[in-house]
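hi support,

uploading two proteins for the ticket. first:
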Amino acid sequence: MDPFDVRLEDSELLDEVELTANLIVAANQSEAPLSITEIDQILGVVPQPRDGRDT
């Protein structure tokens, strides 16, 4: 058994690593800081409509 052969089997962890990598790549390719909207798009976040009430 190779002690350096570490395999990720956690699908949620793999998803988080992929999202983080996508953010890093996008930030490196951008000449300006990413906007919240751009970050949301990269992460696949769908903004919820606000009804004007504080929660």
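and the second one:
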Amino acid sequence: MGNTTFTIPLSKVAEEFSFEMIYKSGDFDKIVISTADVNRPALQIAGYFDYFDAHRIQVMGKVEITYLEQFTKEKRYELFDKLFSTKFPALIVTRNMQIFPEMRELAEKYDLTIMRTEESTSSLMSALISFLNVQIAPRHTRHGVLVEVYGEGVLMMGESGVGKSETAIELVKRGHRLVADDAVEIKKVSSKTLVGSSPDIIRHFVELRGIGIIDVKEIFGIGAVKATENINLVINLEPWIEGKQYDRLGMEEEFTEIMGISVPSLTIPVKPGRNLAIIIEVASMNNRQKRMGYNAAVELNNRLLNEMANGEKE
């Protein structure tokens, strides 16, 4: 599937954060949010509307409300009228601050949703932006299996029948967790982060040739599955090809590009007798070590170079 931008219903946002409904617009259930950006309309209250994006949720906190308190009702009505006329999706008032009568009046006039929360403005905006980033992130689906191994999200890819699902079940038996089998829905939640999950319809199900469909959550328990996981490593499984030169040292790092993000990757040949579950466990731990600044191949190479240098001195 190609990259796509998703939207989220405003009603789902309100439900997620348990907002108090002050005024509910007539089209509330039809309003969708298409951007993760959130705006505090301080400049707009002051009359500056250049570059104002009316697609963003607006958030007012203590600063905006106390600033507005100094004005007369007529002046506040004038300021809110100009802001509300832009028809942004919704206004959220934080810290349970007061709702001016003019706000209610203009909300009815423009049929615009107003909600309230006891959360502080900064914490709400941070949580709201993070939530929206995940919900409306660009995404596409790839054929593969995603498992969490020692805290690392490992995406196994390869042709059908190579052993991805069987390896995932072996990893689950060894205490790791399944995220998705067969189809992995990948979301780009930031410029550096990919998050994988399973389509709802096949979540927790795995197909094992010769057995059929099994429900991992029911057989192995709730601790054997996970809803989402960052993708930290891509492992390409392929049938062993005699004569092909496979990397035996790991000096050169390989990467797989997914939605513009380069993810460390390995190509692991499959043949009878190889325990793929153990290999993937080691690959996961090794990948974590590399991210923490330690590379065993580089360490061995440095030791050899030092040994050779000491030998020449003697």
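thanks. also noticed: The first helix runs from residue 10 to 17.
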